[in-house]
Design goal:
Elements (H helix, E strand, L loop, with lengths): L1 H137 L6 H17 L1
Helix pairs in contact: 1-2
Amino acid sequence: RRAAEALAAKQSAVGEKEEAEKQLASVEAEGEVLKSKLAAAEKELSAAIAAASALRVAQQEKTARAQRAEEEASSIQLEATRARKETEVLQTRVHSLEAEVQRLSNEKLSLSKDAAAAHAQQQAQIEALQAKVRRSGEGAGGASNEDRFREKEKELAKIRVE
């Protein structure tokens, strides 16, 4: 009876051992599956970290480009403002020069009229003196015609100088 009990206990222990080994193999298989899933999850996490890093770098580059574009736009706007001010100054100068040209043109016209009038008056005086010289040459005066002619020539020279 003891031998039968020992045999039954041994068989029971062997059965329990086999069951434990089956459970151990099942747990080990599940462990391998979990290890595989963990490796896959680590790869996905690593890829997600790399993608996030790439997105961060792209965002920084985009921000830097936007800042450069904004600075360039500001610079262009300042240049346009400066150019507008210069244009206004130049337009004012042009108007001033046009007014000066008009004033000088009017002055030239006035001087031309004055010169023409003076020339006409001078011509009239010359002709009057020449006529006087001719008349005095015809008369019987005390001075010779030649002396009177020289005197009238001097008067003509003075008029021309004026």
